[in-house]
Amino acid sequence: MLSFENDYSEGAHPRILQKLVETNMHQEAGYGEDSFTAQAKAKIKTVIDNPSASVHFLQGGTQTNQIVIDALLEPYEGVITPDKGHMNVHEAGAIEYTGHKLLSLPTVDGKLTAAEVRKYLETFYDDDHHEFMVFPGMVYISYPTEYGLIYSKKELTELHQVCKEYQIPLFIDGARLGYGLMSSASDITFKELAQLCDVFYIGGTKTGALCGEAVVFTSDNEPKHFITTIKQHGALLAKGRLIGIQFLELFSNNLYFELSKHADEMSQIVKKGFLEKGYRPYLNSDTNQQFFIVEDTKIKALAQKVRFARWLRYDDTHSVIRFSTCWATPEKNVQELLKLI
Amino acid sequence: MLSFENDYSEGAHPRILQKLVETNMHQEAGYGEDSFTAQAKAKIKTVIDNPSASVHFLQGGTQTNQIVIDALLEPYEGVITPDKGHMNVHEAGAIEYTGHKLLSLPTVDGKLTAAEVRKYLETFYDDDHHEFMVFPGMVYISYPTEYGLIYSKKELTELHQVCKEYQIPLFIDGARLGYGLMSSASDITFKELAQLCDVFYIGGTKTGALCGEAVVFTSDNEPKHFITTIKQHGALLAKGRLIGIQFLELFSNNLYFELSKHADEMSQIVKKGFLEKGYRPYLNSDTNQQFFIVEDTKIKALAQKVRFARWLRYDDTHSVIRFSTCWATPEKNVQELLKLI
Amino acid sequence: MLSFENDYSEGAHPRILQKLVETNMHQEAGYGEDSFTAQAKAKIKTVIDNPSASVHFLQGGTQTNQIVIDALLEPYEGVITPDKGHMNVHEAGAIEYTGHKLLSLPTVDGKLTAAEVRKYLETFYDDDHHEFMVFPGMVYISYPTEYGLIYSKKELTELHQVCKEYQIPLFIDGARLGYGLMSSASDITFKELAQLCDVFYIGGTKTGALCGEAVVFTSDNEPKHFITTIKQHGALLAKGRLIGIQFLELFSNNLYFELSKHADEMSQIVKKGFLEKGYRPYLNSDTNQQFFIVEDTKIKALAQKVRFARWLRYDDTHSVIRFSTCWATPEKNVQELLKLI
Amino acid sequence: MLSFENDYSEGAHPRILQKLVETNMHQEAGYGEDSFTAQAKAKIKTVIDNPSASVHFLQGGTQTNQIVIDALLEPYEGVITPDKGHMNVHEAGAIEYTGHKLLSLPTVDGKLTAAEVRKYLETFYDDDHHEFMVFPGMVYISYPTEYGLIYSKKELTELHQVCKEYQIPLFIDGARLGYGLMSSASDITFKELAQLCDVFYIGGTKTGALCGEAVVFTSDNEPKHFITTIKQHGALLAKGRLIGIQFLELFSNNLYFELSKHADEMSQIVKKGFLEKGYRPYLNSDTNQQFFIVEDTKIKALAQKVRFARWLRYDDTHSVIRFSTCWATPEKNVQELLKLI
């Protein structure tokens, strides 16, 4: 059956697999000290034009959030985060497991504004009893958000400004980073995004890799003995080459960006098609995920013909459903989908 | 340069890569719910002849030790372990990170005996103040050990017996399980080993996979909501298929055992060759790692021609060095090595 | 200066100090094994008419919440709690420090209703992805709440009923328990309250003791090796008698209840006096704390003459302030206060 | 029955109780902000002649070790400690609970030497794989040790020197500090001891207080937001005055030192008496605890007449038993004891 259920249903882009095959018998050092990993790190630093950045490869998104946040926060600090983020809901308490509180701010659409963050920080430091409270030690956002929305250059600039004033890092979860950067609605380059935060990660898993996320510390702020911290969290692969090779290929010949762009384009066709047929959008996404408010009876019928994700209950008779595209989505599948709805 | 540095210097066995290529475009469910993972689990249960076992796939050894131990222990419990084990030294405190103490017993050769474990448990419960001490909640051993030694059927049976008496699980770290089982010195079958413990894992990383370890709970003792625990530890891969496919191939057509056997045979040639040339063995290993006590000046010279691991300082003028073989070691390399020494 | 700032400004009720003096030179066992602690435990079990309850003494409220919650929850569980509770704000992340998420439900007045809890639990188990979420493992409420409100017998009965249906414990934080039980608005006895939850604690610190809280497990549910857990959390006093003696005296001759009743009565005089002078109550408290919405300029003037707590900003020109009474508040102080406002 | 079981069998020295009674009705700020606590801190800084020291009061020894170690270590660090220390055995894993490994060094008598510590640190940094190991982040010793031994000025100076070279703090557990400082064998003043470490604590519980330990950071090294960390660990008493008042009295008119000296003198009479009667000492203690190797049959007989602590099994027919004195031990009790043996 046709599936638009998520952006990780297939394996890896064929060029990535090919690279794994080609390099397979090279004897390399373990634990991320191999030559492919070194090349992949260099590629990423070049593409963001920041030679002093530091790059590390981890396996998945929850793991990356957990390790980056735990490594950058002091034990008495928590992380400011939008309340609708997956970290708050679908990561099984992975952040709290490390002892840190999520300081969740209510949002309308899952995006944090600089004004909201500033107000939280001001109120915190104005409170006579703030020494008995969890100190806000970081701001965390997703780009794009779980709902496919992106931040504008102005929005990111303002957020980063507040963080700089309060001397706390801005961390961008880029599980779907490429889909945001290549979105037709984006007004920001990769280099600019990297300058407008203190740490971010580039999602491999959801953009054509078998696994792997690349953490980038942008401002001489790699936590001391970060390798030890990664090992302590059980996240240091013996064959670090597995992820190094994949990112090396993703950042060769623009592959990462082309895959992202393709998915965004497919998603825009989905969006246009649904809107033309009168479907009601939940919000206006310009990235690889589209959310629609659909009657439950219609959802049930649709589910016979195509796979998608049920996102949330909207009201007694409607739910929000999600259609994802990815590097592997051929346009003919999109056209078939549009015929089905 | 010729390398016998470790058993994870290459990528994956070609049949595994081939399987990843073949299955690549299948659309599958995420987070370990894919059909390949299901098949791989079934294969493993068949090979140990235990239909009620439960199997889960994780990414690496430290991660697996951390999650299994944290999930099986009560918060006030620690794990009995031989003092020379890598968990005690080279895992960056990954177990203590989860709040559990390692209850390290001194050993001569890194192997725990049933008598030592029994004495520890008796002494513990005899202590009037044991309520102020960390409760021993598990026994952990490696098979083979970091020094390539294996336990006999009798030894494992006795260890398991003590554990049963005290109602604590016996956990076997099988990062190099195959090399033990296929050793010419082994008197135990895989099925028997699986019966003589409560939980073990089958190492993929060191036996031909790109990554991945298979945890097997043998006695209806999978921790409740284990998936949630895996997720909470940041260890649930979105593309769970990556590991499922690899284990499916490893346990098809006996591949896992053949690869292990090959490495053991190559290692025995190394051993014989070194002994014939008068090298002094550190201990008598029948698995894929050989340890020799060598003069430092000789080590320095040797290091110009071949890669190996420096293991530990033996005395003021000698060190212990290690030569590892693996699935990817051709016999001609072993013969070249023997010419060099 | 006259102070109504909180209910812990003085030392201990004189009868408690007297008891400490009288018993001082008795040689007793340490770590809570002394005869006074045993007697105090027996007294508490008698007063709640539950011989099979188990009682433990700890030092303060945050510590008690932390240990009880950590001991009763599984590692993958969190605790349902009203969003306005101090545990969420002013306990410095003490619960998250133990790895558990607070599952905060929005409330109007800081009280949780059975309907809200049931809805949360139903929604949780209806979610297809709940295995990736923090499991709700306990319901936590304060009696009275931080705002002095109490639950009726009906409300507690319904809350406990939901907990029983979902087989999770109901934990009542009784830092100010006596003030609730002795409130003129209370329709519940101590025995009934103890029956309507699975664990609660009796606050000593805020009811006339120097320190100390008594945890009571009501339904054969003391966590295994709880003493070990207390020790592991650094909370086992060598001279456990210090708290045992205080609770022994508090529960002799009705002292605990008389002290609580006195404070409630003083508080009602405060309330009546403020209302008569036209002060606007923030909510209707019948326990030992009164909250009023007052103009900031008036607050500033008042602060010259009497000490009270600034609670929260109400709007641009008003704040909520709190006046607390306790066992040590003489009626003449209350009358003086009323003259000042 | 006559008891020499431990040094915390009685309540508090009468002058301490008297002070609690006298100050009882003063209305004071909570959470350690009271005037008595401020005075007590000033007294301690005066007695060690270090105006820039910072002092905090906690409740018990395990708690103090746990909080100081957790606050001073980075998450990837552990603490070097002698293997026989109680922290390793009888503190229920309280340090590991906070995620830190104990790096235990074998010792003959429970004392660490500078040479042993230096060797450990050198070996650690020489290890090519030390990035995969727990970093040594602190040295912890007890003064006196659990066996009543003290360090000489030379020994402490050398230990501190190694710590300074490696830039890690030296932490002295002073649960029985006074008994060491006032020992006839001590060659060090309190001021000198405070200069020869980076943090230490003064035990109140075992020297005449009801509870309480005073942590002293000696070199501008109070951890940032330490109050928040104390609160987060559940260790901030609402009525901080309870401990402040006790230390204020202990450090008024030399009380702390007089109590310690008295106990040491009583202990020396015990020691002399036992030696004269031919008892075999386990080691040579000049502080308030004496350890003897005694035949088990004799121990059994003795236990009918006097209370003491059974310490450890020495061989098949002998055990080590301990006799403690304290501030409350009258000389006539010691004389009675000597008659009994």
From TrEMBL, chains A, B, C, D:
The protein's matches in Pfam families, at most eight in alphabetical order, are given as: Beta_elim_lyase (PF01212)
Q: Which UniProt keywords apply?
A: Lyase, Pyridoxal phosphate
Q: Which InterPro entries match?
A: ArAA_b-elim_lyase/Thr_aldolase (IPR001597), PyrdxlP-dep_Trfase (IPR015424), PyrdxlP-dep_Trfase_major (IPR015421), PyrdxlP-dep_Trfase_small (IPR015422)
Q: Which SUPFAM superfamilies match?
A: PLP-dependent transferases
Q: Which region is the signal sequence?
A: none
Whether Lyase counts among this entry's keywords is: yes
Give a GO molecular function annotation for the protein.
lyase activity
Cofactors that this protein relies on: pyridoxal 5'-phosphate
Which GO biological process entries does UniProt record here? amino acid metabolic process
- Location of the Aromatic amino acid beta-eliminating lyase/threonine aldolase domain: 18-240
Recorded coiled-coil stretches? none
Q: Can you tell me which family this protein belongs to?
A: Belongs to the threonine aldolase family.
Q: Which PANTHER family match?
A: L-THREONINE ALDOLASE-RELATED (PTHR48097), LOW SPECIFICITY L-THREONINE ALDOLASE (PTHR48097:SF5)
Protein name according to UniProt: Beta-eliminating lyase
